[in-house]
Design goal:
mainly beta; 7-stranded mixed sheet; 4-stranded antiparallel sheet; 114 residues; 54% strand
Length: 114
């Protein structure tokens, strides 16, 4: 199982970024998949997850109405559209799925300047 994040970067507050998570090694469209993030000095926290079909999604209160999770099962890829970014969204963003155990990508850095 491999998860590879991309799309992070430096953006000003109020800007947008789109993260991608390319996957391989498992039947992507059978599994829920999600995004976590870890800010400096803080614990990793859940951001959003999406069901195997893409028909259901959940968001943390801190990102609700600003972030949109999606997936394209034909490409084994998940996305996170992040709008109205805030400095407190800064951190390393990881994609995650549970396939017998937790699998994580290497992470992509998102930095939001004020």
């Amino acid at each position: 199982v491999q998860l590879v994040e991309s799309g992070g970067g430096l953006v000003q507050a109020g800007g947008s970024l789109r993260l991608s998570c390319a996957t391989s090694g498992f039947t992507f469209d059978d599994y829920t998949i999600g995004w976590f993030r870890q800010a400096p000095g803080k614990e990793r926290e859940a951001v959003s997850c999406i069901s195997s079909s893409g028909g259901s999604a959940n968001y943390s209160d801190s990102v609700k109405d600003r972030f949109t999770i999606s997936r394209l099962n034909a490409k084994n890829t998940m996305y996170l559209q992040m709008d109205s970014l805030k400095p407190e969204d800064t951190g390393v963003y990881y994609c995650n799925t549970y396939y017998g155990r937790d699998f994580w990508g290497q992470g992509t850095q998102v930095t939001v300047s004020s």
